[in-house]
Structures are given as C-alpha cells and as structure tokens.
Fold this protein.
Amino acid sequence: MKCSFGGAARDVPGSAPLPTRGDGFTSLLDCGLYQGRDEEMDDFNRDWLFDPATVDCLVLSHAHIDHSGRIPKLVRDGFSGTIYSTHATRSLCSIMLLDSAHIQENDARYHNERMERKGRTDQFIEPLYTKEDVRAAMNLFATFTYDRWFSVHPQVEVLFRDAGHILGSASVTLRIREGKRTVHLGFTGDVGRPNRPILRDPQPMPELDYLLCESTYGDRLHEGAPQELDHFLDIIRDTCVERKGKLIIPAFSVGRTQELVYMLDLLEHEDKLPEIPVFVDSPLAVNATMIFGAHPECFDDDLNEYMLVDPNPFGFNNLQYIKATEDSKRLNTMEQPCIIISSAGMINAGRIKHHVSNNIDHPRNTILIVGYCAPYTPCGILRDGAEELRLFGETKPVRAQVETMESFSAHADQQELLDFTANQRGRVKEVFLVHGTLDRQEILARKMREAGIAHIRIPRLGEEIVLD
C-alpha cells in the first residue's frame, strides 16, 4: 500500500492525496484548485501528477474550491468513477463548481480578446473547464450521512465524521483490508473549530494507523470567541460611525459569509448594530445561504435554540442580498456608511475586486480580512502590509485601514489541531502534514512530537510513500 501527494504538499491550495491499495485500487482524497499567483505553480491546475483515468474513486471532504475545484477537469480528462461526499457537500458543489466554471470561461475569453487585439492568436487559451464539464461531474456524485461506513470497493470502506469546518464538511477514514491485515488511514480534510457559530464542533476521528492532517494554522493561536463579537463591533463603529466610511469585507461565499451575517443578526437582535445598511454582494453567497437553510441537520444546538426566537438567522431589516450586476455597481458610487460583504475571500476574483479597487484609496474606509489568504493573492498582499495594490491594471495607494480578524477562521489553530489529534497519541504509526506552508508545518510537527506523536513526515509535492 502506498500514498502519493498530488497537491497541497508544503502549500495550502490544491488538495489531492492519493492512497493506493496493493491491487492498484486508487482513492483520490479531494481534488482542489490552486489559488494564487506563485509562478512555480502556474501549470498546476492544467497538468496532473497522475492520470485521471486511472483513479477509481474520489472521496471529497468538503466543497471549498481548494478541495473540490478541479473535479470538473478531472472528469473532462478521463475520470469516470464515483465521487463520494456528504449530502450538503454535493448541494454546495452544485453551485460552487458552476460559479468556478463561469470564472474559468470569463478569464479565458478576456485573455483571448486581449491576445487578439495584439495579434497574438497563437497564445489563445481554453478555460480549465466549462459548465458542461460541471454537469458531467455532478452526475457522478453519491452521497452519504455522517457516522456510517459505506463500501467503495470490496475491501475498502469509508466513514465520514463531521469536521465542523463548513456545511457538510467531513473527515475521511478509509478502512482498507489487504489479506488478513486491516489498515485505517485517515484524512482530516479541513478541521473546524469548537464553539463556533452555526455548525457543530469537530468530531474526533477513529483511532488510525496513518493520518493525513491539515496544518493551515499550525503555527498560531486564534483570537478567542468571547472577544470576537466585541472586536467586530468596535471595527464597525470606528469605520461606519466615527469615520463615516465603508467596511469592506472579502469573504468566502460559503461558510464565512453566513457566519458574518449570523453574527450581525445577533448584534441587531441585541440592538447593538448601528443603523447602517448591510449588503451581501455575491450571487453565489445568496444561493449558498439558501442551501444552508435546507440543511439544518448540520446546525449546532445554539443555532437551533436561537431559531426558536428568530426563525431567520440569516436576515434582518437593514440587510440586503444583491444578485444583479447593476445593483452591485451602485454600491461603488454610494457615499453613505455601510458594510459590504462580498466574494471572493482572497480578492482574486468576483465583485470584491471592484469594491476594494473603488474604496482602498480613502482613509475613511476599512478592509477587514476575516480568513486565510494565499501569499500571492491581493488579500495576502494586503494582509502583509502593502502600501499599494494593483487591481484591473491600475496601481492604487492603500490609504484605507486594513484590519485582520483571524478569529473568524474556519480552520483549527495549533492547539485545536493538537486537541483534535489527541486520541491518536500512542496509536498512530505516522502522521503526514498536508495543506499548510512548510514553515507552519515544521512548527506544528515539533508541537505534535512534544505532545506524544513521534513519527511525523512533511511530504513533498508528487512524493510517493510506501505505507508499511
């Protein structure tokens, strides 16, 4: 038995580990899209470190694009097996992958029009995949609930447990039999955080022989929840009341946007939210919020209790959901203080690029970063203290205040990862750290060894490791 690493090795995006049974049966765990502008990874999304046609099945931990975003291309390039996920993950993929295909098609069209104007038709490109490829991929999904073993091969079973990261997210355990030997191989997917709004806490995985563990925030601790709501409210008041500016929040359409809206709903319910308009400007986020409402089985007890007094936790009087492009454009000329929540969370696509471009050069405004930003994205550049930012071919000075609240992160921090893996101490033979940058992985590895997990490896992209 062996495992190779086709993505998210010593980096975050593009998750794609491939455990392979001795008879050649290959289970791809996620199939993520690389997001960012790292020149070394330019070809990652278009090329494969494995042959898609030889993959027998895909087990998907959750719907975020860095875990699901290359699925349509996988199908386009020859994969014809089954895609296994939770019910909510399939629901979210149905809208998120179509949105991703729309971006791929638009990017290719924009590039080709630009090349045609320059007389460089030999440099035309095709979209990574199309909406038709997404429809073909969605036909391959088979969905299962949490805490139920199901078979993907006569000798391979899979178990999903709630990872508490986004709606429908799961850790994945493979129970693999080879002769008289049974191996339990686990993949955390992305581990969520305990005591977060909306979703249930992450559930511990079964005891494992091998664990592929995410390490996104393996080097740090997040701000605690008790201070979070007050901090958020302070930023709102400082920006919108004191400076009379706009609070621009780049937020992932799935998970982060709904959490922000729910927290604003709580503030409004307690009469703490200033009387200012709040806009969710993302068609994908609007659709995703509807899917959240269709899957209350994923909600935690606190939200279920809150819904007894407020049956719509994702809506209040001053909140407007925006789909139409013209309505979105009007926000850019709006002078009054407001809150704009828009995607994409890394400011590398979507309407948020326009909102940041139109508001970043005025000191009354604030850009609030509430999630992970890949280093080469505009969001990552802002987070790292840039004094200017280039968007749409124009360089703008950064005069707006830039705030970061990592407490909103849906990823477990260092201590939460240590707590999540505590039941593997003294049991697991080896842990492989994935989905994190090398500097953070090295720190987490040291902490895990100190906590009692002796054998930890940090695989390289494309590396193949034999599992004893």
